[in-house]
Amino acid sequence: MGERQDTALVLFSGGQDSTTCLAWALDRFARVETVGFDYGQRHRVELDVRPRILDRIRRDFPQWGDRIGQDHLLDMGLLAQISQTALTGEMAIAMQANGLPNTFVPGRNLLFLTFAAAIAYRRGARHLVTGVCETDYSGYPDCRDDTMKAMQIALNLGLEARLVVHTPLMWIDKAETFALAERLGGGSLLDLVCEETHTCYQGDRTHRHAWGYGCGACPACELRAQGWERFRCETASGKPTAGGHPAPGPASR
Fold this sequence. Notes:
Family: Belongs to the QueC family.
Order of helices and strands: EHEHHEHHEHEHEEH
Number of helices: 8
Strand content: 5-15%
Radius of gyration: 17 Å
Mean pLDDT: 86
Structural class: alpha/beta
GO biological process, one term: tRNA queuosine(34) biosynthetic process
Binding site for Zn(2+): 200, 215, 218, 221
CATH architecture: 3-Layer(aba) Sandwich
Distance between the termini: 23 Å
EC number: 6.3.4.20
CATH superfamily: HUPs
Number of domains: 1
Catalytic activity: 7-carboxy-7-carbaguanine + NH4(+) + 2 ATP = 7-cyano-7-carbaguanine + 2 AMP + 2 diphosphate + 2 H(+)
Low-confidence stretches: 242-249
Helix content: 40-55%
Largest sheet: 5 strands, parallel
């Protein structure tokens, strides 16, 4: 059975990366469901924008609207109880002695994929799509390609299944992620990404920048702002950004 007849489950937070991955999946699969996680994140506003993004995709992209299936939202509040991080508590963002930023929530992506796989198993979805990335990221070990490959093996062994973990952004940076959104859905999708998605760690929806809403100072905002500037410069110069990068295969480059 080809991909276009299959169902995919997208780990959809409401941020730039997961929204781009959602478009990527809608462009490839016959049916796409989404799953989000409420884990006590201080930028919980990302959960509020999720339904708006889904509604706009249904309204503005008729070629995709009929493919969007059920949205699942899971309560993962236990993560906040067992972790003390800058994403789940009120503390300044800083580097730790182990070389990782204190925005790293231990086990987060491992748990997310495990729960997503359980939903996929029940819903008959064979593909999991996640926006983890090694190119523009904060050094999180659970975003690495090796971690995704290991998770795919573990999930399939544990579920006696043949799930495929897709990581469309693994080897592209933020500028290329903006370009990928434009390539998939044109200026309309790029506008949606800038206007509706949320990535700021501080949960700031009061300051609107060219690249979207955010405080403009946290690591997530800085990364997004730099990517937007590079994307606009390369677009103006006619230099290809995402077009020259093929989408990576399942859990691999």
